[in-house]
Known about the structure:
Blueprint: H1 2-16, H2 23-29, H3 31-47, H4 51-65, E1 68-69, E2 74-75, E3 80-81, E4 88-89, E5 94-95, E6 100-101, E7 106-108, E8 120-121, E9 126-127, E10 132-134, E11 138-139, E12 144-145, E13 150-151, E14 160-162, E15 167-169, H5 195-229
Parallel strand pairs: 1-4, 2-5, 3-6, 4-7, 5-8, 6-9, 7-10, 8-11, 9-12, 10-13, 12-14
Antiparallel strand pairs: 14-15
Helix pairs in contact: 3-4
Amino acid sequence: MAFMFLRETIRTYRERDPAARSSLEVLLCYPGVHAVMWHTMSHWLWRHDWRLLGRFSSHIARWLTGIEIHPAAKLGRRLVIDHGMGVVIGETAEVGDDCYFYHQVTLGVARTMGGKRHPTVGNNVIIGAGAKVLGPITVGDNARVGSNAVVLDNVPADTTVVGIPARPVDRKLPRDRKAPGFDPYGMPADDSLDPLLRDLAQMHGELAELEARMARLAEAQTRQRQAAAE
Ligand SMILES: CC(C)(COP(=O)(O)OP(=O)(O)OC[C@H]1O[C@@H](n2cnc3c(N)ncnc32)[C@H](O)[C@@H]1OP(=O)(O)O)[C@@H](O)C(=O)NCCC(=O)NCCS
């Protein structure tokens, strides 16, 4: 079971991080892998009421990786924590499947209170370096949080938010461009959203239409000349 989990995690890093060159490199050199593996143990201890041991175990992981994940936090599958240093994931935080966090991401508390006080992050969410997501808010599936954003309100699915406080930028991904495709750094790998390339494609279409009309006109003219000659 643990071996399958490790294999899946390593495969995900190789698929998603352009810098990952081999499985051995991912296993040895990626603190995000170590932190998430370690968390499965700390979380198990926590759930089986070995609370202090769970805390201590997560403290050792933090010491080794620079990534602090509370043992009670619930993490989905295939979470990638790239670079990792300074990441904090609080006690009541929940993270869905296929998320991608960069260094110094905080899933933290906005103001002190009991109960659920950390964010719930959906599936396939990218959170940029240094972003702080604070309070018991929800970040919807496929959302993207820009680097250094401070997110204080719910983020709808398929939305990109940036800034302090974070606000949506007018750039909703079309429905057919959502998961399973992954864009490292939150940038689409294909050119479908580049405004210049979109304009060029439109001009190309218009040019082709003009050429077709010219050809039809020339043909009609030839037919008229032939008819006049007969
Ligand atoms: C948020 C992000 C995903 C946006 O990508 P995008 O959808 O392609 O958005 P655009 O680049 O078209 O930018 C849209 C607008 O948001 C602004 N913007 C983008 N990222 C921003 C950020 N982090 N903070 C503030 N504003 C930002 C742009 O300037 C632009 O503003 P404008 O419309 O006034 O010109 C991307 O900028 C980002 O922050 N990715 C995370 C990268 C990261 O953490 N890398 C670490 C690697 S080690």
